[in-house]
Amino acid sequence: MTLSLRSHGRLKVLAVLCLLLTLLTPAQAQAGPGGEDAPGWWDPVQRPAPDSRIGVTGEPFKGTDAQGRVRGFVDAHDHIMSNEAFGGRLICGKPFSELGVADALKDCPEHYPDGSLAVFDFITKGGDGRHDPDGWPTFKDWPAHDSLTHQQNYYAWIERAWRGGQRVLVNDLVTNGVICSVYFFKDRGCDEMTSIRLQARKTYEMQAYVDRMYGGPGKGWFRVVTDSAQARQVIEQGKMAVVLGVETSEPFGCKQILDVAQCDRGDIDRGLDELHALGVRSMFLCHKFDNALCGVRFDSGSLGTAINVGQFLSTGTFWKTEKCTGPQADNPIGAAPAAGAEKQLPPGVSVPSYATDARCNTRGLTDLGEYALRGMMRRGMMIEVDHMSVKATGRVLDVLESESYPGVLSSHSWMDADWTERVYRLGGFIAQYMHGAEGFTAEARRTAALRDKYGVGYGYGTDMNGVGGWPGPRGADTPNPVRYPFRSADGGSVVDRPVTGERTWDVNTDGAAHYGLVPDWLEDIRVTGGQDVIGDLFRGAESYLTTWGSSERHRPAASLAAGAATSASSSEWNPFTSYAPGRAVDGDLRTRWASHWSDQQWLRIDLGAPRTVGRVTLDWERAYGRAYRIEVSADGEDWRTVWSTTAGDGGLDTARFPAVPARFVRVTGLERGTGWGYSLREVGVYGG
Question: Is 614 within the bounds of a domain?
Fold first, then answer.
């Protein structure tokens, strides 16, 4: 199967023979003695020898700007430890080794002597998979921008990115149990949470490895952080803040089989508690496969077919589509064959065909998914919406808006672009996949006006070792090449070509072959696109930490309507349950008020005393109001409208209006959105 490289984060998971592959590992940065004039605080006391050379001179910038803001670039999506994922033999090489660079940067055993058994190399790159397996010291064939199976995140290459101005790196712990189970080569089990624990531990071990070079605990530049204040301190010291995230298909064992969830709320609570204790502060609720928490945003072409096969092997069901109800759409699935994957299907089972006008996943955010989302909010964690179906993303944004919760991330261009302003309005953070410089610049400029409007910076998601492909070379004869050496974005360091062993890389002829070429790629953006995009990116660290800090400080407001006295124009009768008006303010989303099946129905809430009211949330059941208004009154007799809509679409609505004093709040339905009545699971009333 031939992959389309550079088609951003989505490529992560690939069709491993019987299916796809799932993501990431980190990229590589460069380190080494290479030409430093005199030892400074940024120089290690003792670096392993031999090792990679850094190729950057000058003191890394420290402190904050004149407004007290941190500075620096943000990689919001990387996978440093994915060599430990998928059974341990899908991504070859390690980000560090106590035995040195020769041990860290060597190929998988089955790739020797000539790559004949490099099955995944063949699947992801085409050809026959053959390559020179030797890494150190020659690096003839890898790492490379189109080699998706080899380590790109060697610690010294990450160090080079830090020296070039990057100050935040999100290390997404990643794996996929199905890929692990179907891949031929593995040296460990396939339990996803076991792999996540191991990758977290290895990240802390890498921190200790770097610390020892600098003289002891806490002295190295690679700092794992668990809160935004700690991250700010690290960056102010001139070091790199490393944040742990999770991107896996079935977190906490929350898979589904034949649409039956294999986890419960207890599993979710235990899983979130464990991840938080490990230091994880951001997470994807679903990735590539529909699970018990949410539906996914599809992949296209033969890759999509392979992933759909993987979905069936994992869950017993294929993706299901429907016509979209709004401007957003999931990716088209397409009908391209993936013969290797399809052979894994049971006899008589085939991948279904899909209508071209049905672009949306039928599956959105489940009740368990919403429980997990709210659990993340209670823990101050940030929610990744990339890979969620538009139906799931819409509900997530509705919930976050209802709570004024800012902790939402889109880290690698896998979210429908139409959600961009909603994310910024909430206070969230967006990063673009590491495309070629010209394409990256074009997309950055397309959204620049929104960043200006909301006063935010920008990020990139390298997705290194995420099996997505990275920017290729523009060529030695390009009229506007990166010219070495060049100045870092802050102007304080000089960056020359990176050298590891006998190999010298040049972004003009090698593209983004490993993480150490991130500074070179950023210079390519400056050369081809101008300083304005670099300026937005250099403000990324401050914006990311603002989103994180606001999430940590968020405290949910108590609804003034909780348990309040209520009345309604009518209530639907049912011999088995009650749909009384009080059910809409009992704090239980499993109960609801339902009216008779006609228009002009209302629900009235008595707050018990005059209160200041400025926000009302309405969580509709399937029977929703298309046209309705929010009214307030001091005495329950004289009413005035403070908010209204004629375009209600159900789900969770948040009505905001200038704060007013009121004792009574009334929701008046004018036009139903269905043939049923009006049905509200919960109504919240809040101050301004």
Answer: yes
